[in-house]
Design brief:
Helix content: 55-70%
Structural class: mainly alpha
Shape: flat
Largest sheet: none
């Protein structure tokens, strides 16, 4: 491997890292815009802030850095779940209670006898 291929690999990895960071920030902002008062989102965000503060106060202790990474992953997962849960694509269309409970209504059977 030459120096040119290593530099190319580093550039590709840097571009990928920037792209994923922008997508993660976009996901978090989109979730906060849809549900600004959702407690799980605020809890995850406060968890990231506290663990980041702990990492800064301990000057990069390994356990604190791992806690920060786990908190960031939890925030991303929470934002993704809220984004999918409240998406209109996965919502059932409204239907009446009778049709959702009973597939065939028993009073519309006509002259048929049920044994």
């Amino acid at each position: 491997m030459g120096a040119g291929s290593v530099a190319f690999l580093v550039a590709v990895m840097l571009i990928l890292l920037i792209y994923l960071t922008v997508k993660a920030i976009n996901l978090i902002v989109r979730a906060f815009c849809k549900r600004p008062k959702h407690k799980a989102l605020w809890t995850a965000l406060i968890s990231v802030a506290v663990s980041l503060l702990l990492t800064l106060l301990t000057r990069g202790n390994v356990i604190a850095v791992m806690l920060t990474c786990i908190s960031v992953l939890a925030l991303l997962l929470t934002a993704y779940i809220i984004d999918v849960y409240y998406d209109n694509l996965f919502q059932k269309p409204p239907e009446s209670l009778v049709s959702s409970v009973l597939h065939n209504s028993w009073w519309d059977m006509g002259d048929k006898l049920v044994a």
